[in-house]
Amino acid sequence: MSDSIILGIESSCDDTSAAIIKGNSILSNIAANQEIHKEYGGVVPELASRAHQQNIIPVVEKSLTKANIQQNAISAIGFTRGPGLLGSLLVGTSFAKSLAMSLDVPLIEVNHLQAHILAHFIDDANPVPPKFPFLCLTVSGGHTMIVLVKDYFDMEIIGKTTDDAAGEAFDKIGKIFDLDYPAGPIIDRLAKEGNPDAFKFNKPRLENYDYSFSGIKTSVLYFIQKEVKKNPDFIKENMNDLCASVQKCIIEILMNKLEKAAKDLNIKEVAIAGGVSANSALRKVMQDNHERLGWNIYIPKFEYTTDNAAMIAMVAQLKFERGEFTDLRTTATSKYDL
């Protein structure tokens, strides 16, 4: 691995992040979160892009300061080209292009989904990185997919959600329970005090390795409406059990398909990535499968699960070594295939 120093910039949704990587080592990983979206129960694209404009210069400056790196030491700039919210991506893309031009350094475009998966190759992400080929369950607010990773840039999506993503299901069900946004971490916390077998919800029956999460959301909604008619305090009185039961159902849906794929393809190297991979119950099930199914499991550090620039910088470093640069004509894109 080279000693090149790369600045990574991430702005795909509502977190503005900048990181400095040297080789595979992260020297800084700074993020500014946007609290304003809590008021609206979800990310408001226009507000997100405005906040990125306010945050991007301070975040980049802080990442350089923390890494003790001068601008002129930067070898290249990596940025998230997509997928994501177009307005948010435009802020990061425009800034990266301008800075690369002013410093006269190469520009490297990064696929956000590839970055979640390749975050596993950051020095301190895992004790050891996954071996190719491996399966990666990539779960976040916007995406849920099983990816067969044959090499750094040879990936195939073998299963994906046909409707909502798992993180989206957590947030929408959280709204039914009148929890703050984002609801996923709150459900995870409350579930620890609840009985996961208290309530049963519908699971989809899909062929192959695809997912669906709209059914559980509807199942929870109808169940809650029925119970609240009988007892207006039902949610409040059963909150921990509800959270534990919903969490168990979503994780069982995720793991059933992952186990099937691993068995069918005879792969023992299995990783998780994305924001929902921070979920404590999902991490525990992965650990259990290490013992039960003999999987070699790879669970990234918490700071590399949510949207962050360290993972962008990692991909940029891999592309830098291959001389895979982009030019100033590149544009942000809300859809960007693996």
UniProtKB/TrEMBL annotation:
Name of this protein: tRNA N6-adenosine threonylcarbamoyltransferase
Question: Span of the secretion signal?
Answer: none
- Binding positions for substrate per the UniProt entry: T138, V139, S140, G141, G142, D171, G184, D188, N279
Which family is it part of? Belongs to the KAE1 / TsaD family.
In terms of domain of life, where is this protein from? Bacteria
Mention one GO molecular function: tRNA N(6)-L-threonylcarbamoyladenine synthase activity
Record-annotated Gcp-like domain positions: 26-313
